[in-house]
Amino acid sequence: MAVQRQPRPSPDPEYVLRGHRTGVQALLHHPKMDLLYSGDAEGSVLVWDLQHRRPVSTHRLHPASAGVLSLAWLGSNLLSQGRDGTIKGWAVEEDGSCSREHNLVLQTNSYNFCRCSVIPHRPDASDDKPGNGKAPLQEVAGDAEAGTGEPERWLVALAGSNPATVELWEIIGLEVQKWRELKQREDAKMGMCMALQLFRTPDNDTVYAAAGYEDGTVAVWDAGQPDSPIMSSRMHTEPVMALAIDPMGKWGASGSADDKLAVFGLDWDQMKVQELAAIPLKKPGVAALALRRDGKIFAAAGWDGRVRLYRCDTRKPLAVLQYHRSGVQDICFDERSKRLART
Description:
By secondary structure, the protein is mainly β. It has strands at about 25-30, 35-40, 45-50, 55-60, 70-75, 75-80, 85-90, 105, 115-120, 155-160, 165-170, 175-180, 195-200, 210-215, 215-220, 230-235, 240-245, 250-255, 260-265, 270-280, 285-290, 295-300, 305-310, 315-320, 330-335, 340.
């Protein structure tokens, strides 16, 4: 008699947080405290105390018509992106709550669904050459932090007012300026930018931007060479909805509206994006990807309400997490506790 091995049941959530009146679209863990930030479709952000499993504070960061599309850290400030054409910065108090007034604004005039990406910026001398795409400084609500050292520099990448163009904005202290634009060649027909991640490789300080496009292409840009991507390949037959690049800059994963996850290598010698594996999905659609910082596990948030976990080295599935009845919008690893939050 043949005995068929039964699949393990999906593990239950450790706990469930309820407090939003509408759908949650963005998640972010605090880097030092046991706090979780969740942004919803009406523009509100709740700050959750994960030890006591209750909200610490609630803030309306964007209009109800815009919602909160993504959240990110800019040093000790919280960045919120809405579909109102703005990205705002907020001071964070000792208890983790946000200030009542924002201290910086990026007036991007970008109204698409592509989430922004943030990385520290260490510019070299080439950044001061003419024609680097800088725009006049915008008005900001706040001053740079006092101190004897140089103010912190950051780059923020987003799909621009022309959604086929990737815009790079530089933040120095609390001053904001458009730094560069990564434009497609005139003969390229990749469509709108749908997903972004800024990253570096360990051997240099060059900033790279990985971008997923409407036609299914994944392209990698050198921020210092804005005229065209340095490597690209079409990974999907549908628009790329999510990207994740490993901390070493050797490989990445992309999710789309089609029925597969693409795992690709970044060949820096031949300047090629090469598909390493195509992981089939029973139901199409991936809204978000998250790679744990230790490089062992990555997770995919599905439109079918499931989160799938995979080993990074073998790409083999580890578990399928079920709880949500509708699509999962975002996922986020806590690097301190290794918990995975999903919404």
